[in-house]
Amino acid sequence: MTAPDSLLVERPSDAIVVFRLNRPQVRNALNLEVRTRLADEVTRHAADEKIRCLIVTGSDTVFAAGADIGDMAEAGPVEIMARNLQKYWRAIMDCPKPVIAAVEGFALGGGLELALCADIIVAGEGARLGLPEVKIGILPGGGGTQKLARLVGGKRAMLLLLTGKMFSAAEAHSMGVISEVAPTGQALARAIEIAREIAAQPPIAVMQIKEIVNAGLNAPLDTALMLERKALQLQFATRDQKEGMRAFLEKRKPTFEGK
Fold it and tell me: Under CATH, which number does the domain 203-249 receive?
């Protein structure tokens, strides 16, 4: 009997691609195979000119319950170092096009770290998030400690990381961990709505916004403002800028080409 595909690729429209984690027998635990597949598929689809937005999701009951513990329980430090699991998340973080995570149910450990690689996170009201690695004798190693601290502040991050406690979608939203809370079961539908809205925008401007926001967060303010100025100047070399402003003046809907 053929094993089910661990990652499903869906196209709700020509401009949007959805990657669905599909390991229900282990609550979408992230093993090396699914990490590799996801990184490869994100890279491949990001190179498609038709794709304007990418979405990562799980099932209606679980986004991803964490790393596959059975895949690492007996591993040694050299083996873990050689795996360099962060490189697979780097492919998502470095994707030039917007990535949305649609979260239902549990997003724990590596599952939350995966969601944090996205630019926008939409979570269902019933979602439960957390970084519980300390409870099994390790710590978050896929960016969780650093990203969480940058999002919520050091003191609150310490409480969550040192206890490994789970928190709700509402708590995650109030802390700035996620972008929006959707009704339970509607996270993916809402993510697709947002993706359609993004896909209707000028692609070069969208990619520049993503690039300068991410670069600016790790730069001094003066440097970040310089990046913003240069990105704005670049837009005036695009046909989309001319089309957008002409459409505004002519009171019509613009048609953006990504040129």
Answer: 1.10.12.10
